[in-house]
Design a protein that fits this description.
Aminoglycoside 3'-phosphotransferase, Chain: A, domain 2, three-stranded antiparallel beta sheet, alpha+beta, single chain, 10 helices
């Protein structure tokens, strides 16, 4: 349901109206807004003006400043648009951390079901590769640093961790040593490749959205994280590895498998922080416990020592 500026009746609506009042090009225009469903970190809105403009705007959720550099996210959003697979950024309010985008007409958030179609998967690989091949971002933050940051934050906010976190930390240390010894290929990464961050149209063309966690990171991590979100069977993962790198092999597959464990550990730890600080209606503990279980499966995999040697 659309509301006109000035009709706010809730705290969220008052907050969006306060933001709208700060957008210089919109001053003096008649504005209307309505919420957009989706997202587990922020509150999303669609905004229209009397000049025919149609926009997407997101208000940062409580506690997200613990994880997100809004300036870095804005830099990555603009980079994605420049490489041909992002949505145009029309305004950025640094103090509020608010990005405003043109509304992506004809596109919708994808789902895991969409990626059952080979065309969609291959278009996703092309989009990710184009972004990863872009000039480096200002911010470099590897998955190792992300995990350590989240574990420190869990302790700070009094969040919950699994009983075997010490074992997972040992797995993390072994993976870090092996990956650093092999050398990291640091490139711009989304670092958040869940299905909803790929917008899709009727022609199966894709746009990448939501770069809040973007940084320069190990290239293969982008695929590893995507695979943890998609739950592809092994043969599809190998197909996507070959589509991305132009080849496959035991070394690349081992690298992806090690990074899949770290991807799940990262997002599990993130969820335990969110459980303690977020006001959004989402079961972060369940999400985090599931991610820790999958990370545990990788760390305990009989091929884990072999994967480390193959890096």
């Amino acid at each position: 349901m659309w509301k006109q500026a000035g009709e706010a009746a809730s705290e969220d609506e008052r907050r969006i109206e306060a933001v709208l009042a700060r957008v210089e090009p919109w001053r003096g225009r008649r504005l209307r807004y309505r919420p957009v469903a989706g997202g587990i970190s922020n509150i999303n809105w669609r905004v229209a003006d009397d000049a025919g403009g149609d926009y997407f705007l997101k208000i940062p959720g409580r506690g997200t400043d613990m994880f997100v550099s809004r300036a870095a996210a804005n830099e990555a959003s603009r980079l994605a648009h420049q490489c041909g697979f992002g949505v145009e950024v029309v305004a950025f309010l640094p103090e509020e951390g608010v990005e405003i985008f043109t509304f992506a007409h004809g596109y919708r958030a994808s789902s895991n079901l969409d990626f059952l179609r080979p065309a969609v998967r291959h278009n996703a690989v092309r989009a990710l590769r184009a972004f990863n091949d872009s000039p480096r971002l200002t911010l470099t933050k590897t998955v190792f640093e992300m995990i350590e940051e989240h574990l420190a934050q869990v302790a700070e906010v009094g969040g919950r961790l699994p009983d075997d976190i010490a074992h997972m930390r040992r797995g993390l240390a072994d993976a870090r040593a092996a990956l650093l010894a092999s050398g990291l290929d640091l490139v711009p990464c989304m670092n958040d490749t869940l299905a909803g961050n790929f917008m899709i149209n009727e022609a199966d063309e894709l746009k990448l959205v939501d770069f809040e966690y973007a940084s320069n990171n190990e290239r293969a991590y982008e695929l590893a994280l995507w695979f943890t979100e998609m739950a592809f069977p092994g043969e599809v993962e190998r197909e996507m590895v070959e589509a991305y790198f132009g080849r496959t092999g035991r070394g690349i597959e081992a690298r992806v498998n090690v990074l899949k464990a770290l991807a799940d550990m990262k997002w599990a730890s993130w969820a335990m922080v969110q459980e303690a600080v977020s006001t959004l209606d989402f079961d972060y503990y369940k999400y985090g416990a599931w991610k820790y279980r999958r990370a545990r499966t990788q760390f305990h995999h009989p091929d884990w020592p072999l994967w480390l040697r193959l890096l």
